[in-house]
Every structure is written in structure tokens, then in C-alpha cells.
Amino acid sequence: QVQLVESGGGLVQAGGSLRLACEFSGGTFTNYAMGWFRQAPGKEREFVAAITWRGVNTDYSDSVKGRFITTRDNAKNLVYLQMSSLKPEDTAVYFCAASALVAAPPPRFVGQYDYWGQGTRVTVSS
Q1: Cys staple from 50: which of 2, 35, 63, 71, with CB 3.0 to 4.6 Å?
Q2: Distances (CA, A) of 110 to 16, 19, 58, 73, 99
């Protein structure tokens, strides 16, 4: 059974940076595209970023484009989300997810993902 474990969340001031990591286990990492989503209190889970299995193609929401970068290390079964120029509106629980849809572009909808991590909280203070 595929398992995903996020790490790297925390409290940061506006304008700061954080790097989230997600460790994949229980399957073949390169069989999956990987995505990042976030959910703020009282709001629906929303797409943040995604990356295809080889790491060649990425996609970002308009709200994070130019500030966030997702990468993956297929040798270590890890996917990362480097977040820069953080804003208070980036405050949320961040989830990584795995999708068996491996064609480009990577999927960006919640229903297209098969496995989810438990989430890591990011708080950006103003």
C-alpha cells in the first residue's frame, strides 16, 4: 500500500521560505505523478503544484506560480515543494498526493489522485 509522509511545515514570517518534502513508500515511485494541494480553514482543498513521473513537466496554480517550485528525486522516492516569498494567504495544511495518471501535463484535480499524505501545517505570519 502506497504511503506518503510530508515534512517541513512550520511557522515563517511573510517573505520567508520553506521547503516541504514528501516521502513515498509502498510502491514504485516512478509509476506516479506527484501533486501538492493545500487546505485553509473553512476552505476546500486546492491545487498548488504537480510534477510528472520523470520530473520533466510541472504545473502550478496561478497563486503560487513564480514563487513555488516542485521537484522530485526518483532515486530517493522524494518530492519537494520549495516555497519562497511566502504570504499570509499561503497559510494552510499542505498535502502531497500520488496519481497514476502519468501523461503530461500532470493532473491538477483532487479526484485524479489515488493516494494522500496526512498533511503538514504551514503558517505565515504578517
Answers
A1: 35
A2: 28, 22, 16, 23, 10
* DSSP letters for 71-89: EEETTTTEEEEEE-S--GG
Query: How far apart (Å, rounded) are the C-alpha atoms in residues 51 and 84?
Result: 18
| Nearest-angstrom CA–CA distance, 83 and 16 | 8
The one-letter amino acid code at 4 reads L
Kindly report, residue by residue over 11-21, the tens digit of the pLDDT. 999 999 999 99
* Distance (Å) of CA 101 to CA 27, 53, 55, 90, 114: 15, 9, 14, 27, 9
In this structure, are residues 18 and 12 in contact, taking their beta carbons and an 8 Å threshold?
yes
Task: Give residue for cell 504570504.
Answer: 87
Nearest to 100 by CA among 114, 118, 80: 114
Q: Please tell me the distance from the alpha carbon of residue 118 to that of residue 86, in angstroms, as a whole number.
A: 22
Structure confidence by residue, pLDDT tens digits, 114-126 = 999 999 999 999 9
